[in-house]
């Protein structure tokens, strides 16, 4: 079904969208075709500068807040009204792909470009946003920028978090904001009339169902922890087994005990130990310390609560002669996006002749925190075999364009609301 020429969507250019996606992917490009653009890194600073350049070319007004959330604003005819925000993140996992997060930011930019080209001005301002540190890889936990914006986490708490090299978020923020000292500053959090995030599905449902647009129902619950097992460093050649307090051996027992306790027949629990560091990590030294991460998720609030509450006791019981210390980092409840937002996305897809279906998001997104401060929603597009957090992440130009057309239609419609 063709597009009526007067729609905002008809001004969306798949070529322009794809060119910007491929250009952004060059910042932190890896040899295997992926992207390593960690939060607040030099690669991300350069990528942000490119976003600002594109935004100015379109006629948008760039600004930044103290958490380095980047806003690219299309002023409305009534700029005093709370704006509509649309965006995602441009930081990636260390072996990330070209599209996780970046698609939502570039689709937001393209949506504003299309609105400008349509010659129509929305009542409310519409702001494309790149949220700071969604991935939580360099600095854990993730979604720091949107959490601070929504008032879920205080700045002081996130500024104190350090990366593996000992660099704090506060120091890294200083570098980013120094590079952007010419940009106007925004307050940390301001009234917002609505938020819409486009993202790759990072699952196989849309591809399996041959459906173009995912209307996201909600996001599953998530808890994260930092576990530290402390033993005693000693000589590998002289220390008898009976005299050892081997942190690695204890950590292995703890991991196995956790896996046994968390295992569920239905395979609905998502339990991941993604980071595991041994100290001093030297071949002839009995490990004195092991630190590992836990990422626990499930769609049911009680299940996330109950399983998470078991973790400290299991670690302490399985640590043997070593000690186990469990730090709780994050506890986000499952959420359901408002029917009003989901309905708008479905209707826009219908108008555009795009197939669509409702589905949950097992992955976390910044929309989780925007949902606390304004009506929020998400649009998914398919990604090849559901591959993500992997350099082989891939989408088609057609799906990326279709998702952007739906996004452009809905954000303009929202901005026209009184
Ligand atoms: O981990 C997540 O769910 C998100 O992709 N950072
Ligand atoms: Mn993401
Ligand atoms: Mn991700």
Task: Provide tags for this entry.
418 residues, alpha/beta, Aminopeptidase, Alpha-Beta Plaits, 2 domains, ten-stranded mixed sheet, 12 helices, binds (2S)-amino(hydroxy)ethanoic acid, binds manganese (II) ion
In short:
With 418 residues, the protein is α/β, with parallel strands linked by helices. It has 12 helices and 17 strands.
- Give the CATH H-level superfamily of the largest domain: Zn peptidases
**Sheet with most strands:** 10 strands, mixed
- Average pLDDT taken over every residue: 97
Q: In angstroms, what separates the terminal alpha carbons?
A: 31 Å
Q: Return the domain count.
A: 2
Given helix and strand content, the structural type is: alpha/beta
Please state the overall shape, judged from the principal axes of the Cα atoms: globular
CATH fold-level topology of the largest domain: Aminopeptidase
Topology as H/E string? HHEEEHEHHHEEHEEEHEEEEHEEHEHEH
In the predicted model, the low-confidence regions spanning at least 5 consecutive residues are: none
Q: What is the CATH class name of the largest domain?
A: Alpha Beta
* Number of strand elements: 17
| Secondary structure: helix percent | 25-40%
Heterogens? (2S)-amino(hydroxy)ethanoic acid, manganese (II) ion
Radius of gyration: 23 Å
Oligomer description: single chain
Count of DSSP H/I helices: 12
Strand content: 15-25%
What is the name of the CATH architecture of the largest domain? 3-Layer(aba) Sandwich
């Amino acid at each position: 079904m063709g597009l009526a020429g007067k729609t905002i969507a008809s001004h969306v250019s798949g070529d322009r969208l794809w060119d910007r996606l491929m250009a952004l992917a060059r910042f932190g490009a890896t040899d295997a075709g992926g992207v390593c653009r960690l939060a607040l890194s030099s690669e991300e600073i350069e990528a942000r500068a490119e976003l600002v350049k594109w935004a100015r070319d379109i006629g948008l007004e760039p600004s930044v807040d103290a958490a380095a959330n980047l806003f690219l604003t299309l002023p409305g005819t009534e700029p005093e009204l709370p704006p509509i925000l649309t965006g995602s993140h441009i930081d990636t996992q260390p072996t990330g792909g070209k599209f996780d997060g970046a698609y939502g930011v570039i689709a937001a930019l393209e949506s504003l470009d299309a609105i400008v080209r349509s010659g129509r001005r929305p009542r409310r301002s519409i702001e494309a946003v790149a949220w700071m540190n969604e991935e939580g890889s360099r600095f854990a936990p993730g979604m720091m920028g949107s959490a601070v914006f929504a008032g879920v986490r205080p700045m002081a708490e996130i500024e104190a978090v350090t990366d593996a090299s000992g660099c704090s978020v506060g120091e890294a923020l200083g570098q980013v904001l120094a590079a952007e000292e010419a940009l106007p500053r925004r307050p940390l959090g301001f009234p917002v009339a609505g938020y819409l995030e486009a993202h790759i599905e990072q699952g196989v449902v849309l591809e399996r169902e041959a459906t173009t647009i995912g209307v996201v129902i909600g996001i599953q619950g998530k808890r994260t922890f930092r576990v530290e097992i402390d033993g005693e460093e000693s000589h590998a050649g002289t220390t008898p087994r009976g005299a050892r307090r081997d942190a690695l051996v204890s950590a292995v027992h703890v991991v196995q005990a956790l896996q046994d306790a968390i295992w569920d027949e239905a395979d609905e629990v998502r339990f991941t130990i993604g980071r595991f560091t041994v100290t001093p990590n030297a071949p002839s030294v009995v490990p004195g310390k092991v630190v590992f991460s836990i990422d626990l998720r499930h769609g049911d609030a009680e299940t996330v609560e109950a399983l998470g509450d078991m973790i400290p006791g299991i670690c302490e019981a399985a640590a043997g002669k070593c000690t186990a210390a469990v730090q709780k980092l994050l506890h986000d409840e499952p959420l359901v996006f408002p029917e009003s937002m989901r309905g708008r996305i479905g209707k826009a897809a219908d108008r555009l002749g795009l197939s669509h279906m409702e589905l949950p998001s097992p992955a976390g997104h910044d929309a989780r925190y925007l949902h606390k401060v304004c009506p929020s929603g998400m649009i998914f597009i398919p990604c090849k075999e559901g591959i993500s957090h992997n350099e082989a992440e891939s989408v088609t130009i057609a799906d990326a364009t279709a998702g952007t057309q739906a996004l452009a239609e809905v954000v303009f419609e929202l901005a026209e609301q009184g």
